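## retry 2 of 3
previous attempt timed out at serialization; input unchanged, resubmitting
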Amino acid sequence: MSDCKNVWVFVEVFGGKAKNVGLEIIGAGKKVAAAGDQVAAAGDQVVAVLVGKDLDEACKAAASFGADQVITVSGDAYAEYTLEGYTYALKTLVEKYKPAAFLFGATSNGRELAPRLAARLCTGCAADCTDIEVGANGVIAWTRPVYSGRYLSTVETPEARPQIGTIRPGIFKRGDPDTGRTVDVVNEDIALPEDVVRTTLIEKVAEAVEGMVKLEDAEVIISGGRGLGSEEHFALLKELADLLGGVVGASRAAVDAGWIHHGHQVGQTGKTVGPKLYIACGISGAIQHLAGMTGSDVIIAINRDGDAPIFEIADYGVVGDLKVVVPALTAEIKKLRA
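## retry succeeded, writing output
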């Protein structure tokens, strides 16, 4: 393990662009690498790893958000994500360069790719982490929710390298890019054997959701829960969200009731978000929902129940009927804008 160095971050690419979560966890990688001054096993550089095709724009993005080096594997064989193909490429890279740690985003791809790679390398994998710390012995302590978010567990891999984990989107702030920053880009040519990939992409079907916006990228989110009472009242939240340049979120209760598409769901079984402003309307504050939004800079809660758990973590709270409070808030903002 003494030969292992540097912290790797897997930056997912879609349509030639780097996914936001990969750019976010470059910051997490820097947190680990910063311990490298005192802990040799932690390494001292953050290396962004990209696999796919047409990666130039994504490489520039990784550099601008703080990667010290970029390693790419590109070509027609990697144009579409396949679990087997990407695992083969990453395993080949790890065996060549021997990183001390490898961080992935907790996306649909990252959640299956990271543990499969860990199994191939005979190391551990911490899943869906919400924080990381580096101990004096160079071992990363990965913090992850368990039992539907009721408790936090600490996971360590002291006897194997690389230390692998997936980190939820929205946990680490992306920061401001330095578009003039350039770093060394290493292009690795890894031929993919024909018998490695056992699945074939037949067709891609995009699920159309009217007005859908990525919650992870939103700076303002207006979320509704069971307290809305019906699908129609989401129109109140939509008007306020549009006014503030934000998007509409929802609790699991609202999604399960069929009032809004599950793509808007925030929480343990939905999206993890970290906007500048999060307004929770009619959301009691179940721990599963809190797990997905406590990273918000400012939280405002609107609820008729003054004892609702949401008020314990809110920066500002309004005890009242959201069907009265939200229209009043919207009207006042319109006055200020005028």
